[in-house]
Amino acid sequence: MDSISDSTRPQRLQPGIGFGTFGSTGTLRSSLRPGVTVPIAPLLVLPPPAPLLCVSSSGPPPPPPPLQFHSLYGTMGGGMGLGTAAAGPGNHPGNPAVLKEAVEAVVRSFAKHTQGYGRVNVVEALQEFWQMKLTRGADLRNGALVVYEMVPSSSPPYVCYVSLPGGSCFGSFQFCPTKAEARRSAAKIALMNSVFNEHPSRRITDDFIEKSVCEALISFNGNREEADSPSTGIGAFRFMLESNKGKSMLEFQELMTVFQLLHWNGSLKAMRERQCSRQEVLAHYSHRALDDDMRTQMAADWVNREQGVAGAIGRELASTERELEEARLAGRELRFHKEKKDILMLAVGQLNAANAATLPSH
């Protein structure tokens, strides 16, 4: 690592798969084209995001569960040969009726403590909640604005997504006969998770870090030296947690979305090939927000995959849309799935533009 110049290091840490001189249509190197096995373990291997709130029984909503990262340290250890942990019961969609009842109970409770008894305008309540956080000193780089996005449709059911100021995304989880109802449904699930996110059990503390690292060592038969070494999977897991001490689960999930997308796109494996250390990648991307430049580079990689294997984008897009729909109906946090779909749609646009540019003029 010492022989690599400072001017080269930022290029090696770019999210695109390629490195060096690229063609005009993308950044995918021929050695990393689909179907070619590269015998290098990825720096990180991350699971799909777990639901921020899991409802599994009838009656009033349960207290917010503790942070659950037990599957994360298992999949961050690509260099250790650690496999993906099995999905727990929280990774399966719950009973829709129970989820609806729990959401309504939280909204009613929030309304009682903030506005008194009576019907609450949940869209206004969600905006006021985040505005309140901003006025109380929350670190919201882009302000407290809550953004809604309707899925284009001329008939029901209507679907709406809502993005919170930090980047977390939720969607309408019920059958919505009107656009207004879809907006309210999305606001309800977002408000519930926003409120529960304030609970102390959803904060990363010294005690939580120590407990989580000990569980990781036990689960994977590791030793204490591994937890203190940044070159191991468990060491990287500890580094991530300590770097986010004091943050909430929503905030940590927003950070992990970046690494999940880098893994999904193949960028982490490519960085490994460029001899980037796990610690170097973690340190670099822990302080980088997901932006249009990163999305564009990932989309360009998918354009090159499509040019190498026809139908690659279509198959991945169909799979992503199924995952997004399942997660939305289960009331889960959606940003990872939503960003994947947006990147793939951007790739479709790039591909169409490239094809149009090559058509003969008449």
UniProtKB/TrEMBL annotation:
InterPro entries: Autophagy-related_EPG5 (IPR051436), LIX1 (IPR029270)
Biased composition regions of type Polar residues, renumbered to the chain: 1-11
GO cellular component terms, A-Z: cytoplasm
SUPFAM superfamilies listed in its UniProt record: dsRNA-binding domain-like (SSF54768)
Pfam name, any one: LIX1
Stretches for region Disordered: 1-20
Organism superkingdom: Eukaryota
Biological process terms in GO annotation: autophagosome maturation
PANTHER family noted in UniProt: ECTOPIC P GRANULES PROTEIN 5 HOMOLOG (PTHR31139), LIX1-LIKE PROTEIN (PTHR31139:SF3)
UniProt record similarity statement: Belongs to the LIX1 family.
Name by which UniProt lists this protein: LIX1-like protein
